[in-house]
Write a structure and sequence with these properties.
The complex is a heterodimer.
Chain A (H helix, E strand, L loop, with lengths): L6 H12 L18 E2 L20 H26 L13 H10 L5 E3 L5 H6 L4 H9 L8 H4 L10 H15 L6 E6 L6 H12 L4 E7 L2 E2 L2 E2 L11 H5 L3 E5 L3 H16 L5 E6 L18 H8 L3 H12 L4 H23 L8 H4 L7 H15 L7
Parallel strand pairs in A: 1-7, 2-3, 3-4, 4-8, 7-8
Antiparallel strand pairs in A: 5-6
Helix pairs in contact in A: 2-3, 2-12, 2-13, 3-10, 7-8
Chain B lengths: L2 E5 H15 L3 E5 L15 H5 L4 E3 L4 H13 L3 E5 L10 H8 L2 H4 L9 E6 L14 H5 L5 E4 L3 H13 L4 E6 L6 E5 L11 E4 L4 E5 L3 H14 L4 E5 L2 E3 L4 H10 L2 E8 L4 H13 L8 E5 L10 H4 L3 H13 L1
The chains are: A alpha/beta, B alpha/beta.
Bound molecules: thiamine diphosphate.
Thiamine diphosphate (TPP) sits at the interface of chains A and B.
């Protein structure tokens, strides 16, 4: 084993190699001592305390989180079905990552700005983005139909890692303006290998920018397991950049909420960035184009099913009497209604006019492009009435 | 003769396999190319047969893939780098343009860079943004690089081997929407040189030039034109840098008309360079200006609009008509 420079990191790593408490089965994470994982709700739905992180939510708030999780999952399942039926070009499922996304999203305040990848439908939900505005991207109608400024939710970024620099720059802007807000950058475990992500971490540290990096470690970058991207637990990377890193159980919505809230609060107070590793699992394929049976074992999936983020909150709410059958039935009914709205909204979504591609290329349209558009319109018109 | 009917994808797979068997220094590198066999399965089965040292699932970092390829090349390896989709080559652009392209010249020939950068390119597959682009002009504009754009299984099988054997760095563009197109491939026949363009259909009225995915479109347009008694000659350019325009010049001197087709935006695309050169060489034979058919000068649109954005049979025919009527 190679020597590690900084004290706390090497201590953590060596203890990890000796006292493995509960490596999450199937995730091949022998470096995962439980004390490194912030958890407030066990997979069985048992409420546990953590010395540093606490949440104090009333019944309504807890039921609200459950509702978020259930509706987001239903949206996702419906979108996957729509893709299979040819209504969407592709869909990137968030199955299994609902708690990480809802927890992080609900930690945001209205003035904050989220910078998603392409999978953060759960965060979109918490920002009030209409699911159909996300669906339209995957249907090929536009590149995301929502207003990033009005929603505090940036457009999806498909080029891995690019958004981490944007979030950092945005945070530097907030800092200059003396604002009380922060930026929240989402990234995957694979993204941590990108040069641009590492540059973002450096900039954030050097300028003490009010940005939080929220990394959903779902164990895979398409087929490539975490081991190929990092030889240390991802949250420990932060130490090398000079700011705190923390690992949270990404399937525990309460822990994610607590940890992200604390990190955002620290950022707003001028304490600089935090790197959060939300330890989770991508239950579905990478996208609907992917075949995960080619690179991972079914047994892994079975292990992770036991850690389902929604089942554990449901168990907790039922056991404590915070929610009853009537509540769960009402959420179910609401989910059915949402799914119906998504389905009809998708199948009835009009195709954009061809001229849409010219519309916003520049803030100031150029004569050249205007002329090209005019030619395009004449050319298209020459077919009208012909084939239909 | 050993012949086999192959798709472009399978021909690439077999060509890569052959290159790896022939030269132990050939190393494949890329995201998801090993265990998964690549998102298009072009490297399917190669890691299983050649091992993880020769078919490397890299970390998710394109600058890393190309930058380390430079170092490996300095050690005598022949890295074949897969970029997952056209739109994701840009993190590696710096390495390709400032390093890979220049090292042979900077070292006055002491360091060779036999690197192949494989890129599935072009649109027409209904994908989300960054998965349908045609970045060839950026590379063709860079001195020190060679750029190949194949259109068929024969060139896939032989071209990838020729590219790997070449001592120079090559950006090797694969027409992703045609990966499943089939043709018979002669596995014994000595291939055309990689650098030669090829007249693939004879004609007298107009010369249509294409490469990569647009070759099929150009052939379809030639068929349709024939029904209207227009005789279209089609040239598959095959290599975009260096351009082999001798057969093109010969053709245009005969037809007097030339249309260049590509998916990339027309402005400063390959068509612009070709139009200039053809005009210089064929000025007195031309009956019409060299016309270009390409993508509009907009970002590649959402997939619902790609059919309107991409040149198709009708747009090629339209240009053929305009050339004829000029
Ligand atoms: C620069 C770049 N390279 C490659 C890709 C293709 N690609 C899309 S998603 C993906 C894996 C991403 O893994 P990770 O960051 O762990 O996020 P996840 O998809 O698991 O949420 C890859 C390689 C891309 N989108 N951008």
């Amino acid at each position: 084993m190679r020597e590690l420079a900084s004290e706390p990191v090497s201590a953590a790593v060596s203890s990890a190699t000796t006292e493995v408490v509960d490596p999450v089965p199937g995730a091949e994470a022998p470096h995962l001592p439980r004390q490194d994982l912030v958890q407030l709700l066990t997979p069985e739905g048992e409420r546990v305390e953590h010395p540093e992180y606490a949440v104090d939510l009333d019944g309504e708030e807890l039921r609200g989180l459950y509702r978020d999780l259930a509706l987001v999952r239903r949206w996702d399942v419906e979108a996957t079905a729509l893709q299979r039926q040819g209504e969407l070009g592709i869909w990137a499922s968030l199955l299994g990552q609902e708690a990480a996304q809802v927890g992080a999203g609900r930690a945001l305040q209205p003035g904050d700005m989220a910078f998603p990848t392409y999978r953060e439908h759960g965060v979109a939900w918490t920002r009030g983005v209409d699911p159909l505005h996300v669906i339209s991207l995957f249907r090929g109608v536009d590149n995301g139909g929502w207003d990033p400024v009005a929603t505090g939710f940036n457009l999806y970024t498909v080029v891995i890692g690019a958004q981490c620099l944007h979030a950092t720059g945005y945070a530097m802007g907030l800092q200059r303006d003396g604002g009380e807000s922060a930026a929240l950058a989402f990234l995957g475990d694979g993204a941590t290998s990108q040069g641009e992500v590492n540059e973002a971490l450096i900039w954030a540290a050097s300028f003490s920018a009010p940005v939080v990096f929220f990394c959903q470690n779902n164990q895979y970058a398409i087929s490539v397991p975490l081991e190929r991207q990092s030889r240390v637990p991802l949250y420990q990377r932060a130490a090398g950049f000079g700011f705190p890193g923390i690992r949270v159980d990404g399937n525990d919505v309460l822990a994610v909420l607590a940890v992200t809230r604390a990190a955002l609060a620290a950022a707003r107070e001028g304490q600089g960035p935090t790197f959060i590793e939300a330890f989770t699992y991508r239950m579905g394929a990478h996208t609907t184009s992917d075949d995960p049976t080619r690179y991972r074992l079914a047994s892994e999936l079975e292990e992770w099913k036991l850690r389902d983020p929604i089942a554990r909150l449901k168990a907790h709410l039922s056991r404590t009497g915070i929610a009853d059958q009537a509540f769960f039935a009402a959420v179910e009914a609401e989910a059915d209604e949402l799914a119906g709205r998504i389905r009809s909204g998708t199948t009835e979504m009009p195709d954009p006019p061809g001229t849409a591609m010219f519309d916003a290329v520049h803030a100031e349209q150029t004569p050249h492009l205007a002329a090209q558009q005019a030619e395009f319109e004449v050319y298209q018109a020459s077919f009208e009435g012909g084939s239909e | 003769m050993t012949a086999q009917t192959l798709t472009i994808g399978k021909a690439l797979n077999l060509g890569l396999r052959k290159a790896m068997e022939d030269d132990a220094k050939v190393v494949l590198m890329g995201e998801d190319i090993g265990r998964l066999g690549g998102v298009f399965r072009i490297t399917d089965g190669l890691q299983k047969d050649f091992g993880e040292d020769r078919v490397v699932d890299t970390p998710l970092a394109e600058a890393g893939i190309l930058g380390t390829a430079v170092g490996l090349a300095m050690r005598g390896y022949r890295p074949v780098c897969e970029i997952q989709f056209d739109g994701f080559v840009f993190p590696a652009y710096n390495q390709i343009v400032t390093q890979v392209a220049k090292i042979h010249a900077r070292s006055r020939g002491k360091l060779a860079m036999p690197i192949v950068v494989r890129i599935p390119f072009g649109g027409g597959i209904g994908a989300v943004e960054h998965h349908s682009e045609s970045p060839e002009a950026y590379f063709a504009h860079t001195p020190g690089l060679k750029v190949v754009a194949i259109s068929n299984p024969v060139d896939a099988y032989w071209g990838i081997q020729q590219a790997i054997a070449s001592p120079d760095p090559i950006v090797f563009l694969e027409p992703k929407r045609r990966y499943w197109d089939k043709a018979e491939v002669d596995l014994d026949a000595p291939p055309d040189p990689l650098w030669a363009s090829r007249v693939i259909r004879g004609g007298d009225d107009v010369t249509v030039l294409a490469y990569g995915p647009m070759v099929k479109t150009a052939l379809q347009a030639a068929d349709a034109a024939a029904e209207e008694d227009r005789s279209v000659e089609v040239v598959d350019l095959r290599t975009l840098s260096p351009l082999d325009l001798d057969p093109v010049v010969e053709s245009v001197r005969r037809t007097g008309r030339c249309v260049v087709v590509h998916e990339a935006p027309v402005t400063l695309g390959l068509g612009a360079e070709i139009a200039a050169r053809v005009t210089e060489s064929c000025f007195h034979s031309l009956e019409a200006p060299v016309l270009r058919v390409g993508g509009y000068d907009t970002p590649y649109p959402p997939s619902k609009l790609e059919e309107e954005y991409l040149p198709d049979l009708d747009r090629v025919l339209d240009a053929v008509d305009r050339a004829m009527e000029f």
